[in-house]
Amino acid sequence: MTYTLIQALRGVLCICVVLIHIKIYLTKQGGDLSLFWHIPDLFGGIPCGFFAISGYFMAFLVDRNSPHFLVHRLLRVYPMYFIAVGIAYVLRFCTSSHLDTDDLFYVLSLLPFGMGKSYKLGIEWTLVYEIWYYFICAVFCNQRLKSYFPSFLITWLFGVMITDIYFFRIPQPVPNIFTVWFAIWNYSFIMGALTYYYLQRKYEPDTMAWAAIVALGSTATFSYLHGRAYSVLYWLGILACLLIDWLIRLESRIRAPKFLAQLGDYSYTLYLIHSNIIILVFYSWKSTTGTPPGTIAGLMAFVLCMGGFWYLGQVDVRLHKYLKFHVNKALADGWAAAGRRYVLAPLAALVSSRSSRD
Prior knowledge:
By secondary structure, the protein is mainly alpha-helical. It has 12 helices and no strands. This is Acyltransferase 3 domain-containing protein.
C-alpha cells in the first residue's frame, strides 16, 4: 500500500514549520509581522505530527522485520544532513553571524549530548530524537523480538506520562542521554507506533484491552496536566494519530496529487535548509535597506526556501537511491567483499596510478 496522503501531509507540515520560523525570526528582529502575524503559535507543535508519522512507519518496518533497518534509516538522514550543514556554512559566511566549528563532531553525530552545543541548522533537536528512535526500533527489528515491541511501547508510554505527572517541566530542545527517554515529545512517536498496531489488529481482544488502558492513561494525564505549559503537545499528538488513521482509510478512495506527494518526498531537505535561508534573506534585507525585515522580506525568504528545496530535494532523493543501491549490494555480498570492492580496490588503483607516474 502506498501512503501518498501521508506524504502530502508531511510536506504541508514542513511548509507550516517554515512559516512559523519566519514569524519567529521576524519577531526577534523587531520586523513588521503584518501577514505573518496571522500564523498561529500552535504551529510550534508541528513536530508532534512528524513524530507521529515517524512512529507509524517505524512500527510498520519493525513489524515487517525490515532487513538492515538501522543502516537504511541512518542512510536516509545523515548524507543530506551533512550536505545541509555544508550549505549552512556557505550561507552564513555571507552574513555577519558566521558559523564556527565548535562541537562539530557532536553536532554531526545527532546523538543526545544535551544543551550547550553549537548546532548549525537550528532544527537538529528533532533529528536527535529521530535518530534515537531508530536505535530503539533497531533492537526490536528481528524475528525473535518484534512481538515484544508493542508491550515495550506501552511501558515506555506510561513511563513518559508518569514522569510528566510528577516531574513536569518545559522540555529542553536538545535532550541528553537521560532526558531523551522521558521527554514529552516521545508521546507522539509512541502513539504513532501504537496507531499502526491498533489498525492492524483492532479486532483482537488483546488489542482492544491495551487500547482501552492507553486511552484511560492518556485521559488521566491530560486531565492532570491541563493548563500547564506545553501540555497541549499531548493533544497535538492524539490529533496527529487520528489524522493518520483517517488518511490511511481515505487512501483507498483518493490519492494525493503527484505534486503534493513529491512535496512530502522532498520535505526533509526543506526542513534542513530553511532556517539558514531565512537568516540570510533577513540579513541581506537589513544591510541593503537599513530597516528591519518585514512582510516583503518574509515572502522573499519563503519563495527562496521553496525554490531551493525543490531542486535540492531531487538531489537528496537521487543520492539516497544511489547510496541505498550500493549499500544493499555491499550488505548482500558481505562486509569483507564490500571492503575489498569499495576500500581496498580504490586504494590499490590509487597506489598503482602514482607508481606509474613516478
